[in-house]
Design brief:
Strand content: 5-15%
CATH class of one domain: Alpha Beta
CATH architecture of one domain: Alpha-Beta Barrel
Structural class: alpha/beta
Oligomer: single chain
Largest sheet: 5 strands, parallel
Helix content: 40-55%
Strand order of the largest sheet: 1-2-3-4-5
Number of helices: 11
Number of strands: 5
Shape: elongated
């Protein structure tokens, strides 16, 4: 409900009509109510959002999981820079008295967290009154800066989180096929596989995905993951595209790499972050 926090009473009836209609039409197992990426202009915003949650939840008694995203979904100072200062009692006003079934998305210590630790999640649990539901902003690459990279490396850190969170959702790259090998590395961490074994599986899977040009693409992977599209010269782009074209069979992952190199996944200025 974008910016509903400042005018809820005015639009309450219509909002709840829409929520009820959507719930009855879709009968979802999971329902998410998101207050992220919007400016709060009132110290009472947390209390208003609390009431919105209570009202919406009352309309869906059969929903199995009800997840919210607060406006401040990390302790990262960038959120206050983008959306204004967090009201002093925001988390208390938002969370106090909410049913236990309400889960809360949390991105970790940063909006784009390089690692998420049990200590990070326990700090969030203190203010939320429950274990957070991780919303992991790796390997997503739809931001102004992140759109210059293909985040193909394995997940970093993120060990021993199972007992500290209620769930773990991942925000993927725009390049759908290329996500698969990366996402597998997170699953292997939850299974307890050591990092050296994960890295071996990752390399094997990535080379299989790259096809006939795998050796070249893997050797030059740093150009895609670390150098960045805007720093590549014409010769480097041509070399990477030629390596992709060595594979004769249809290959969606290679098509995505070539699309990336041809700027088909350019940053959308409408994206807030």
């Amino acid at each position: 409900p974008y910016n509903l926090s400042g005018c809820y009473q005015e639009h309450k009836e219509r909002f709840l009509e829409v929520v009820k209609a959507q719930y009855e039409a879709l009968t979802p197992e999971i329902f998410c109510l998101l207050f992220d990426d919007q400016t709060l202009d009132s110290e009472s915003a947390g209390r208003v959002q609390h009431q919105i949650i209570v009202d919406a939840l009352s309309l869906m008694p059969g929903v199995e999981r009800f997840v919210i995203c607060p406006t401040y979904y990390s302790f990262d100072p960038i959120l206050e820079k983008l959306f204004g200062p967090r009201p002093e009692h925001y988390f208390t006003d938002l969370m106090d008295g909410l049913p236990d079934k309400v889960e809360v998305f949390w991105t970790g210590p940063k909006v784009l967290s390089p690692d998420i630790t049990p200590e990070d999640l326990k700090a969030a649990e203190k203010v939320l009154g429950r274990r957070p539901f991780i919303w992991d902003n790796y390997p997503v690459n739809d931001g102004k800066n992140s759109s210059q990279f293909l985040n193909l490396k394995p997940f970093n850190g993120r060990r021993n989180l199972a007992g500290c969170c209620s769930g773990h959702a991942v925000n993927p790259m725009l390049e759908c096929e290329l996500n698969k090998v990366v996402l597998k590395t997170l699953a292997l961490k939850y299974q307890g596989m050591p990092d050296d074994e994960i890295n071996a599986v990752w390399e094997q899977d990535l080379k299989a995905q790259f096809g006939a040009g795998a050796d070249i693409l893997f050797e030059q992977l740093h150009l895609l993951t670390d150098r960045g599209l805007d720093k590549l010269n014409a010769l480097q782009k041509a070399m990477l595209i030629a390596a992709c074209e060595l594979e004769d069979a249809p290959n969606p992952a290679l098509e995505e790499i070539m699309g990336f190199l041809n700027n088909e996944y350019a940053f959308d200025p409408a994206c807030l972050t």
